[in-house]
């Protein structure tokens, strides 16, 4: 038995991430070992979770992962924890199709109680029918309690508390608005810039919510039986040399993806920003991130640019996702219209001018296999003279979508962030490293 719960909200922008971070830190300061999770493919929330809990946050995604994989990940990661906290995504029932892939689906799948965070800034007793609807919409779901955010006064909270009582949901307190605990955002979500002291902001959030949220009662309500699991037998299966870009510009990686790479051989991390020598490698992984924030430094690191270009031209194996793909292009144009030369292997130019959001889950069809991932970027292509593959890409609603997937020499590049933490077939087939393994 241990406290386990999912933090959700009726809508996005209800403050659930700030509340989650504050709770993670408050529990950690009490001496609990807290295991954080994030519903969906978000890379940035997990970085803040990890900082708040001093424990690597894990993504749980019902579109990109099988139910068996989700159960295994969850159970394995909570076995040494005192408390498990899952942050939901968007509104509680918002999924890729109806509630498929939603926070509600994840709570039902893992049999987790839900703590509902409600933005009560412009609401009083009218919250009662809203709570009634969320409580009764799906009988498989258990809402253990409600926390009201952006509450103005104690008297305001009394209206909200009475609404809870009338719909037979327990109110676990409230959080007054506080600009000092607001985490700045960038165009892809919460900022991870070194300009801000996130540790200080999160500690302030922990102190702030501890004054008005009934944390002990929350833990009592959400203490449930814990199913144990054993790790799968995953011995190393190859001895490849694998180089992974990891620095301020390239850091959108899933821990499970990296674990699979480690099963394939020795993983070495390098920095396209700071390193001048490319590690010896059979496979190079260029993940997404924020290259557009470091264009001058990336462009001026000519020795590494030249080394990567030579590696690609000499048939080295490369997987480049989103920002990694942009880096392999001829140039990137920033929001002010300034153009910076990049690797020059792909005959494409990407731009942050006239930025347009491209967002959504993607299914990639190749050789009778389906590989899952997601697209999330604001950059656009201004020049594309590169030939694409015949790989078919569909949305979560199985609609064809024009997302270019490039195959050139042994380089696979696209805007799609792939998840291959469940098995190696993506790397074998689509990236093509089976040729390195004699498979």
TrEMBL record:
Residues 6-187 form the CobQ/CobB/MinD/ParA nucleotide binding domain. Keywords: ATP-binding, Cobalamin biosynthesis, Glutamine amidotransferase, Ligase, Magnesium, Nucleotide-binding. Coiled coil: none annotated. GO terms for molecular function: ATP binding; cobyrinic acid a,c-diamide synthase activity. The active site is at residue 322. One of its GO terms (biological process) is cobalamin biosynthetic process. Its EC number is 6.3.5.11. Pfam families: CbiA (PF01656), GATase_3 (PF07685). InterPro entries: CbiA/CobB_synth, Class_I_gatase-like, CobQ/CobB/MinD/ParA_Nub-bd_dom, GATase_3, P-loop_NTPase. Its cofactor is Mg(2+). Pathway: Cofactor biosynthesis; adenosylcobalamin biosynthesis; cob(II)yrinate a,c-diamide from sirohydrochlorin (anaerobic route): step 10/10. The keyword ATP-binding applies. It catalyses: cob(II)yrinate + 2 L-glutamine + 2 ATP + 2 H2O = cob(II)yrinate a,c diamide + 2 L-glutamate + 2 ADP + 2 phosphate + 2 H(+). The record marks 417 as: Increases nucleophilicity of active site Cys. Residues 241-422 form the CobB/CobQ-like glutamine amidotransferase domain. Belongs to the CobB/CbiA family. The a and c carboxylates of cobyrinate are activated for nucleophilic attack via formation of a phosphorylated intermediate by ATP. CbiA catalyzes first the amidation of the c-carboxylate, and then that of the a-carboxylate. Catalyzes the ATP-dependent amidation of the two carboxylate groups at positions a and c of cobyrinate, using either L-glutamine or ammonia as the nitrogen source. Comprises of two domains. The C-terminal domain contains the binding site for glutamine and catalyzes the hydrolysis of this substrate to glutamate and ammonia. The N-terminal domain is anticipated to bind ATP and cobyrinate and catalyzes the ultimate synthesis of the diamide product. The ammonia produced via the glutaminase domain is probably translocated to the adjacent domain via a molecular tunnel, where it reacts with an activated intermediate. This is Cobyrinate a,c-diamide synthase. It comes from Xanthocytophaga agilis. The gene is cbiA.
């Amino acid at each position: 038995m241990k406290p386990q719960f999912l933090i959700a909200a009726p809508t996005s922008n209800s403050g659930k991430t700030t509340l989650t971070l504050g709770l993670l830190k408050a529990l950690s300061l009490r001496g609990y070992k807290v295991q954080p999770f994030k519903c969906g493919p978000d890379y940035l929330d997990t970085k803040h979770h990890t900082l708040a809990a001093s424990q690597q946050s894990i993504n749980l995604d019902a579109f990109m992962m099988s139910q068996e994989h989700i159960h295994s990940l969850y159970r394995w990661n909570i076995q040494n924890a005192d408390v498990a906290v899952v942050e939901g995504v968007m509104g509680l029932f918002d999924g890729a199709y109806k509630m498929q892939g939603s926070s509600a689906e994840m709570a039902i799948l893992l049999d987790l109680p839900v703590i509902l965070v409600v933005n009560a800034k412009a609401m009083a007793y009218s919250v009662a029918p809203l709570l009634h609807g969320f409580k009764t919409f799906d009988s498989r779901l258990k809402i253990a309690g409600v926390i009201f955010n952006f509450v103005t006064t104690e008297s305001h909270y009394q209206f909200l508390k009475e609404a809870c009582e009338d719909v037979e949901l327990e109110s676990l307190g409230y959080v007054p608005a506080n600009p000092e605990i607001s985490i700045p955002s960038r165009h892809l979500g919460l900022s991870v810039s070194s300009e801000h002291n996130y540790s200080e902001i999160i500690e302030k959030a922990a102190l702030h919510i501890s004054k008005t949220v009934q944390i002990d009662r929350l833990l009592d309500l959400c203490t449930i039986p814990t199913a144990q699991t054993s790790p799968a037998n995953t011995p190393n299966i190859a001895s490849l040399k694998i180089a992974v870009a990891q620095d301020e510009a390239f850091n959108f990686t899933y821990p499970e993806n990296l674990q699979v790479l480690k099963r394939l051989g020795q993983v070495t991390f390098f920095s396209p920003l700071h390193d001048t020598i490319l590690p010896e490698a059979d496979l190079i992984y260029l993940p997404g991130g924020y290259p557009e924030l470091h264009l001058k430094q990336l462009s001026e690191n000519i020795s590494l640019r030249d080394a990567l270009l030579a590696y690609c031209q000499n048939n080295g194996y490369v997987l480049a996702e989103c920002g990694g793909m942009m880096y392999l292009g001829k140039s990137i144009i920033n929001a002010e219209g300034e153009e910076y030369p990049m690797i020059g292997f792909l005959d494409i130019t990407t731009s942050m001018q006239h930025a347009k959001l491209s967002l959504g889950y993607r299914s990639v069809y190749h050789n009778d296999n389906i590989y899952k991932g997601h697209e999330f970027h604001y950059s656009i292509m201004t020049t594309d003279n590169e030939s694409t593959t015949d790989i078919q890409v569909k949305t979560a609603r199985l609609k064809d979508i024009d997302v270019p997937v490039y195959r050139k020499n042994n380089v696979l590049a696209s805007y799609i962030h792939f998840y291959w933490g469940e098995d190696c077939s993506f790397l074998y087939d689509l990236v093509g490293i089976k040729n390195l393994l004699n498979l």
